[in-house]
Amino acid sequence: MSYNLRREETVDADQLRGMLEESPAKAAQAILAAAGQGVVQAQLLLGQILLDGRGIERDLVLARQWFAIAAQGGSAMAHNMLGRCLEHGWGGEQDLAQAVAHYRTAAQAGLDWGLYNYANMLGTGRGVAQDQAGAFAAYRRAAQDGHAKSMNLLGRYLELGIACDADFTRARRWYRRSAQAGDFRGQFSHAAVLAEQGEVGEALGWLRRALEAGNANFLRSSIPELERARDARVRGMAERYRERLGAM
Questions:
Q1: Cα–Cα dist 67/224, whole Å
Q2: Which of 55, 59, 82, 162 would give a disulfide with 67, using CB separation of 3.0 to 4.6 Å?
Q3: What is the distance between the alpha carbons of residues 145 and 98, in angstroms, rounded to a whole number?
């Protein structure tokens, strides 16, 4: 099968992802050609497949360059991904201030991932003056747009009363929504609430789901919290998390 993406076409992101699922190597060639013709969505996806090494040789320097080109073309997600490259030093020097600038542009465009990453920088004061009120507002907007990770962090701000009045009832609702939307940290937060309320059976189910989806940093940070739990069944999950971490 051949693909022909022209500059004047509107290329749907789902269409491009479908092309990659069907034949990564062929799709990568078509995406490369379309990117060279100025199709902004193809430029963005080319940056992503270069970052991941999917259907094409992994090249972080080129990935960063294509994200920059797509950002110049007006792609909010490209601004977000260029921000990630700058934040983490992928494909070049780390520049936190520039990362913040690109996250801010993506956030101002209403992109949920841009809002989330911008909020993270504001909340931690990395590359920008710390602004918990700004972080809370950005997390809230992204959460209201359905961003699962932001739902969990909005819940954390509400639980602890960071830049807002503490409201555990609302925090609990956001944890539940985050868990249901598939965020493993939200699943853990929701499980912690359930365990404290004595609903241990349901809590264990969510802890298992978080265990399956969580990355190494999450597993490592979760073990001490599990070990401090009041219920022995919850404490027992710490060993499951430790085993999974060791197998990674």
A1: 39
A2: 82
A3: 25
| 129-132 LR contacts (CB < 8 Å, sep 24+) | 132/157, 132/162, 132/163
Q: Are 100 and 127 in contact (CB under 8 A)?
A: yes
Query: Within 10 A of 126 (CB to CB), how many other CB atoms are there?
Result: 14
Spatial contact of 155 and 178, defined as CB atoms under 8 Å apart: yes
**Amino acid letter, 218:** F
Per residue, the 3-state secondary structure of 97-132, as one string, reads: HHHHHHHHHHHHCCCHHHHHHHHHHHHHCCCCCCCH
Q: Quick one: average pLDDT of 54-80? A: 97
Which of the residue ranges 15-19, 110-114, 175-179 would you say has the lowest mean pLDDT? Answer: 15-19
Q: What percent of the chain has pLDDT over 70?
A: 93
* Cβ–Cβ < 8 Å for 148, 181: yes
DSSP letters, 134-160, are HHHHHHHHHHHTT-HHHHHHHHHHHHH
Q: Torsion angle, CA of 34/38/39/41, rounded to 10 degrees?
A: 110
How many Å apart are CA 83 and CA 124, to the nearest integer? 16
CA angle (120 as vertex; 119, 123 as ends), nearest 5: 80
Q: Which residue is associated with the tokens 């009045």?
A: 165
DSSP SS3 for 83: helix
- What distance in Å separates the CA atoms of residue 70 and residue 65, rounded to the nearest whole number? 9
- DSSP at 12: -
Give percent above pLDDT 90 in the chain: 85
